[in-house]
């Protein structure tokens, strides 16, 4: 006999219904077999690469002989947190190797890049310190800041380092209710009630950005950011943290990341690398100084109070770094860049040919420097569903994941994608555009249901 719903269930059901009424309800889905992947974050397709899979299976088979000096490192689980019985010689040697690969002094493994951000931002900023962050920084940084003792948390306008034309930004920011540039935020910090402490280096200022932003696919202006921070905080109390989750493996020599590509290793205080994207496995690492590593071991709650990575995860990280360091990923990175450019040009040609309303479908004006291409549309669910029904897995991204008015279908390219698959995706997008505008003359403001019917008519 089913148990009657509780008052709490009724409250939760009401909140879900409200989200459903706004067309924002999230659901778990699976990918149908045979679908071309233009959705996942596995940019280099390493999880399905035959050489990586063979190396991984071989590493698992050699587990007992290779790791008998760590008796608690079981094949399926680690047995505890790093501070108890979950540490291993393999984990520590892997940390040193990864740090060396990325030209860093030291590193500390976490179960994911999310947990790395939680631990780092949750414990490092001290009372009175300030955290300045790009408005599009990952949700895990926001969650870490909720745990933080930092005195202030200040966002700046996405990828806007300097004021336009060198002029002050305050007036325009107030008039348009837009966020200020990084330059303006740092200037304001020097003029606030505790500005003297900032100027004299007695208050730390942490600046948090991403190497590649996962929703828009654009790159942080790291050189400008570094120069701006050093200019306004010359006493060395400005500490830049770069989340490289989406730039690991695809930027820099042998995939070392954007910081290494730009030669900024010695001017970035900490980096967070994630292994769940291009690396095709799981886990994350904070690259930092030995002192910071020791501090995180003592204070990072997301490290202290969680079971550590199992041998299977450590082995997957090990073999993927072997693959990168050997240079065997270089052709994959090259192919990824070629197909990313081809996909953008193909979609751009469709827009040029049919001139759909920008509300219905538009691209960023600049060609992508990453494998992420957002297709901005007022009907992301309809476009995504049409592409999925045509055999191409793309995902709609809607509010609150992105701001209202910035809804999109997110195309993620992979080294495993072929030019034929990209051409097929282009045909699907073009058919959807024709279904909306060529048949009905719709401007993109109609209902999603009517648009889907038109698209189905176009397919028939």
From TrEMBL:
GO BP term, example: biotin biosynthetic process
One example GO MF annotation: pyridoxal phosphate binding
UniProt xrefs under InterPro entries: Aminotransferase_I/II_large (IPR004839), AON_synthase_class-II (IPR050087), PyrdxlP-dep_Trfase (IPR015424), PyrdxlP-dep_Trfase_major (IPR015421), PyrdxlP-dep_Trfase_small (IPR015422)
Tagged with keyword Secreted: no
Cofactor needs: pyridoxal 5'-phosphate
Domain Aminotransferase class I/classII large: 37-425
Identification of the protein by name: Pyridoxal phosphate-dependent transferase
Protein species of origin: Phialemonium atrogriseum
């Amino acid at each position: 006999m089913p148990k009657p719903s509780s008052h709490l269930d009724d409250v939760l059901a009401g909140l879900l219904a409200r989200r459903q009424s706004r067309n924002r309800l999230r659901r778990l889905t699976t990918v149908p077999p045979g679908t071309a992947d233009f959705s996942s974050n596995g940019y280099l397709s390493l999880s399905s690469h035959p050489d990586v899979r063979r190396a991984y299976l071989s590493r698992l088979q050699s587990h007992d002989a290779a790791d008998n000096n760590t008796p608690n490192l079981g094949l399926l689980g680690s047995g505890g947190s790093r501070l108890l019985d979950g540490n291993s010689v393999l984990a520590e040697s892997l940390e040193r190797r990864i740090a060396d690969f990325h030209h860093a002094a030291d590193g500390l493994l976490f179960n994911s890049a999310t947990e790395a951000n939680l631990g780092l931002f949750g414990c490092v900023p001290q009372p009175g310190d300030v955290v300045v962050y790009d408005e599009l920084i990952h949700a895990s940084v926001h969650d870490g800041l909720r745990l933080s003792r930092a005195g202030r948390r200040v966002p700046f306008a996405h990828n806007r380092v300097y004021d336009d034309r060198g002029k002050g930004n305050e007036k325009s920011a107030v008039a348009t209710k837009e966020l200020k540039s990084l330059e303006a935020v740092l200037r304001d910090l020097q003029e606030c009630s505790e500005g003297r402490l900032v100027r004299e280096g007695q208050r730390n200022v942490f600046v948090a950005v991403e190497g590649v932003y996962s929703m828009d696919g654009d790159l942080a202006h790291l050189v400008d950011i570094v120069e701006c921070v050093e200019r306004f905080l010359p006493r060395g109390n400005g500490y830049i943290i770069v989340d490289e989750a989406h730039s690991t493996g695809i930027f820099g020599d042998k995939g070392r990341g954007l910081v290494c590509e730009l030669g900024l290793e010695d001017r970035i205080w900490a980096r967070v690398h994630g292994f769940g994207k291009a690396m095709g496995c799981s886990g994350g690492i904070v690259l930092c100084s030995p002192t910071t590593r020791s501090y995180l071991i003592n204070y990072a709650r997301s490290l202290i109070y969680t079971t550590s990575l199992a041998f299977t995860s450590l082995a997957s990280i090990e073999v993927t770094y072997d693959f990168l360091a050997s240079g065997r990923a270089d052709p994959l990175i090259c192919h990824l860049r070629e197909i990313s450019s081809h996909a953008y040009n193909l979609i751009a040609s469709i827009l040029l040919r049919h001139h759909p309303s920008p509300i219905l479908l538009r691209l960023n004006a600049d060609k992508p420097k990453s494998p992420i291409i957002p297709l901005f549309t007022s009907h992301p669910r309809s476009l995504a569903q049409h592409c999925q029904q045509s055999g191409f897995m793309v995902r709609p991204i809607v509010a609150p994941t992105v701001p209202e008015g910035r809804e999109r279908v997110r195309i993620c390219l992979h080294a495993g994608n072929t030019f034929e698959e990209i051409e097929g995706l282009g045909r699907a997008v073009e058919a959807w555009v024709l279904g909306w505008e060529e048949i009905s003359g719709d401007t993109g403001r109609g209902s999603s249901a009517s648009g889907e019917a038109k698209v189905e008519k176009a397919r028939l």
